[in-house]
Amino acid sequence: MSDRLSQVSGHISNTHARGLLSGEVAIITGAGQGIGRSAAILFAKEGAKVVISDIDEKRLETVVKEIQAFGGEVLAVAGDVGADDFPKKIVDATVQKFNKINHIVNNAGFTYDKMLHTTPDDAFDIIQRIHVRAPFRLIRQAAPYFRVKGDKRENRSIINVSSTSGLHGNVGQVNYAAAKAAVLGLTKTIAKEWGPFGVRANTIAFGLIHTRLTASKEAGVTIEIEGKKVALGVPGAPRPTGQSTQQNPEAYPLIPLRRGGSTDEAASAMLFLASSLASYVTGHTLEVTGGAGI
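Request: output the structure for the sequence above.
Response:
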């Protein structure tokens, strides 16, 4: 038994020494900022060739330069994940550049918060389109590169981003909660259908991670959705004073760790699910919440 444990331990050490994702190819959407940016940089540092996408081309260019600065391999494909031609565009570009796809991280998204009784159809539909339909269509487009038969198959995984709103619901987020709940069913179906091909599919449900979506709404951050300006953030949310957290633990009484998470911490959880460290983990929803909701 001790010899076997030594072999396993040695394998993990050697893998990490050359990068947990060495030689693998990962598509990461919504990578221009926030969690997606952190994931793209971390994956690249762990040896992955990353294909990053964002609707904001300028932000995407900045991330490309950051990755290239430490010698990482990166390809940027700007665009709207909800556009009909987006899946083919990014899959074709990825395969043309790197010849394969190992991982898809469906991270792109935003919030369009309203109380249920005031939520119009368009506010509900756009959130479903970006958070459910877009990931489904990208995964379907990439199917030929995941449904691979044979014994010599590389590490491959799908990671879909959900939220505690999808697990428990949330006031003012009927559209977002419904979409993030749907992601769980999508992921588990992929796990069952593609498991025989060695593909793992997992969901990651984030709690409070400090991004523009969880920052104070009073900061005035907006995005434009189909010609309309939509305010982002949470009314009255405390602002972090450091890289990752608001230092006053009393600001987060419902989180056992008494703080919110950083985008780097969120990315680390994604790395675990993509890496061979999670080689027997599939169909799972990993809650990254600082203990909130337990």
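The helical segments are 2-17, 34-45, 57-69, 86-98, 121-141, 164-168, 174-194, 263-274.
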